[in-house]
Amino acid sequence: MARTSDRKEHPLSMRLPEADIAMIDRAATLRGRSRTDFVREAAVRAAEDVLMETRPIRMTAAGFAAFTAALAGPPAPVPAMVDLVRRRAPWEPGDPETGA
């Protein structure tokens, strides 16, 4: 009798140029990950991005009206962003500590 198993892992193999493998290995090392973990994470992230780009967003007519009203309304300032824009960049002349 054939035994069926619920495998949670499925093999995936690729043939890549040596230069690609070297780049992947270097990046994986910088992240402290194995090549397999690094490639799996990157592939899943790329797949999620594609799926999110093509996933329709559904909402009620009232929800859509509220959404478009929020987009059309005046922007609300975000205090952290206002502070960031007002701050002197580290490469600009002057003392970044005192602002002088």
From TrEMBL:
Entry's family note: Belongs to the TacA antitoxin family.
GO molecular function list: DNA binding
Entry keyword Lipoprotein: no
Biological processes per GO annotation: regulation of DNA-templated transcription
Record flagged with keyword Cell cycle: no
Organism: Rhodoplanes elegans
Name of the featured protein: CopG family transcriptional regulator
A Pfam family hit: TacA1
Keywords of this entry: DNA-binding, Repressor, Toxin-antitoxin system, Transcription, Transcription regulation
